[in-house]
Amino acid sequence: MEVKSLKGLSGVCVVVETLAPDITRDGLSADTLRKTISSHLSSGGISLLTEDQLSQPGAAIFYVSITSVKSDAGLYACNVHAEVIQAAALSRDPNILTPATTWTSGTVGIVGASNVRQLNDTVAGIADEFVKDFLSVNSKQQPKPKIA
Asked: In 62, 121, 125, 147, which residue has its Cα 20 to 30 A from 109's Cα atom?
């Protein structure tokens, strides 16, 4: 069901939630995460939208959050979560639109303070997963040649 909801999506606006101050001090940047995600999505053929373009039909938000807790030993327990949020109509009244999460992915893990930049690779993998799902329902099929 999640993958089918991506059919006809015109593009996404990438939003990365503000990171915890300690993980930012140790080298992880929301701006770098946003650039990593944007690069993977656009390389996969997905249009990147600005916030101003979110009102157009078929627009969605690709939202990423990383929740982290740092131990005294310098290890982070991290929850990396991504979701696509689209406007959805209520079945009881299609005139009522509401934001709805229509695709999700994520992972949890532990990373050392000196290796927090590796979370860029984790986020890139999730972006690639989204590209794969998006293309599975939006790829343009080549017309079959006619046999004379």
From this structure: 62
* Structural domain includes residue 145: no
Judge whether 146 lies within some domain.
no
> Which pLDDT value is given to residue 144?
55
Predicted confidence at residue 117, as pLDDT, reads 95
Q: What confidence tens digit (pLDDT) does each residue in 8-30 have?
A: 999 999 999 999 999 999 999 99
For the chain, what is the domain count?
1
SS3 133: helix
Nearest to 63 by CA among 97, 103, 96: 103
- Classify residue 143: in a domain, yes or no: no
Q: Which helix or strand (DSSP H or E) is residue 81 part of?
A: strand 75-89
pTM over 0.85: yes
The residues, any chain, with a CB within 8 Å of residue 11's CB and separated by 6 or more, are 46, 47, 48, 49, 53, 58, 59, 60
The CATH number of the domain holding residue 102 is 3.40.50
**What is the domain range of residue 76?**
4-138
Ramachandran class of 8: left when φ > 0, alpha when ψ lies in -120 to 50, beta otherwise = left
**Long-range contact pairs involving 21-24 (C-beta distance under 8 Å, separation at least 24):** 22/68, 22/70, 23/66, 23/68, 23/70, 23/76, 23/116
